[in-house]
Amino acid sequence: MKRVMTYEESTHMWGKIWVWGIGTLLLMFPLAICIVFDAWPPITGLLKGLWAILPMYWAVGTIEVLTYVPMLGAGGSYLGFITGSLTMLKVPCAVNAFDKADVKAGTEEGEAVATIAIAVSSMVTLAIILVGVLLITPLTPILDSPVLEPAFDQLLPALFGGLGVALIAKNVKLAIVPIASMLILFIAVPQLASSGAMFVPVAAAISILAARFMYKRGWL
Amino acid sequence: MEFSVNSPVLFVFVAVILLFVVAQCVFFLLRAWKRALALGLDKRKLWRVVRSSAIFTIVPAISIFIGVIALSKKLGLPLPWLRLSVIGAITYETPAAEAAAKGVGTSIGDTATLLTAPQYSAIAWVMTLGIMAGVILTPLICKKLLTGVDKFKKRDTKWGEILMSALFMGMISAFLGMIFGDVHEGLSGWIPVFVMLCSAAIMLVLAVFIKLLKQKWLEDYALPISMVGAMALAIPITNAVNAVVGGLV
Question: Are B209 and B225 contacting, i.e. CB atoms less than 8 angstroms apart?
Answer without folding.
Answer: no
